[in-house]
Amino acid sequence: MGTDHDAYVVQLGLDTFGDVTLDESGTPLPHAQVLRNLLEEGALADRVGVDAFGIGEHHRDDFAVSAPDVVLAALASRTERILLGTAVTVLSSDDPVRVYERFATLDALSSGRAEVTLGRGSFTESFPLFGFDLADYEVLFSEKLDLFAALRSEQPVSWQGTTRRPLEATQVHPRTERGSLRAWIGVGGSPESVVRAARYRIPLMLAVIGGDPARFAPYTDLYRRALTELGAEEQLPIGVHSPGFVWDTDAEARELLFPHFKANRDRIGRERGWPPATREQFEAEADAGSLYVGSPETVAQRIATTVRTLGLSRFDLKYSNGPLPHPQLMHCIELYGTEVAPRVRELLAAAAG
């Protein structure tokens, strides 16, 4: 049976995009092996007490996961208590009805442990792959989120838009045992997106991947104000997703991570016109930005600070970083669950008095 994770004051999760990793000789592993390794990573996260495990969706050769719901279903059979979700589901190029059906099915198979984070995604490969026009980027997400939000009532839905045929009093199956699918809206920093999450009464997940996390305080404040002004009876959870890596010491963590961090950033940078990542930029992010890298104590202190500063209910560490090898990811997961998470809660309790 799944644990009632809603009872935790702060949930501490892990996210991965299923990055293609290297073997001992420095050769990229085949996608099939990366996927099998991913199941081992999720199972370990469950054993060491991590609250949630999120898997991203991509459709390109440097990431192995294009169908996160399938991977999560396999992981459901190997775990007992951990929440199983996405980071993120690219709703713009998917069908809201199918998304609801798939994750309601996952919710049943995992005894109520499924969740889905809905977003536009920072990669656009899925649009041409599934026959969508990038010119419709805004309307696709807006209309599909509107339909998904209506489906969460799990009552017959009538809906009409411009991107698909209308629905007339349509019931979607299966229904969840809890009465609605647990969901988040992933936001990269748009005030309009923050207000939209509040309007639909869906928890907010901020992707904070660069710079001082405190700069997102205006967005968390905006979300809370919008909920109040829209007549919400209670405040909803706010979460943050940020990259990081935990190792035994600060120096070792940085040395192990940097070449893989750079490889990942430089590939994306070549596609988007960014300059190559420098060691100085890496160190600045590790010192005071949104890269949580170091020993368990260092990472715990920085997570606790971000949780307090932004008033978070959830923090997810994206532990996969480019081709960083699987054995190193496993050690990171173990340290996060056994040392970082308990220390973060200890720090937060002490700060609360």
Write the layout of secondary structure elements.
Elements lengths: L10 E6 L14 H17 L4 E4 L12 H9 L6 E4 L2 E2 L5 H14 L5 E5 L6 H4 L7 H15 L5 E3 L7 E4 L11 E6 L3 H9 L4 E4 L9 H13 L8 E9 L3 H23 L6 H10 L3 E3 L1 H15 L3 E5 L7 H27 L1
Parallel strand pairs: 1-2, 1-12, 2-3, 4-5, 5-8, 8-9, 9-10, 10-11, 10-12
Antiparallel strand pairs: 6-7
Helix pairs in contact: 1-11, 2-3, 3-5, 6-7, 8-9, 10-11
Average pLDDT, rounded to a whole number, is 95
CATH overall fold name: TIM Barrel
What percentage of the residues does DSSP assign to strands (E)?
15-25%
Helix content: 40-55%
Low-pLDDT residue spans: 1-8
Q: Largest sheet, if any?
A: 10 strands, parallel
* Through-space gap between termini: 33 Å
Helix run count? 11
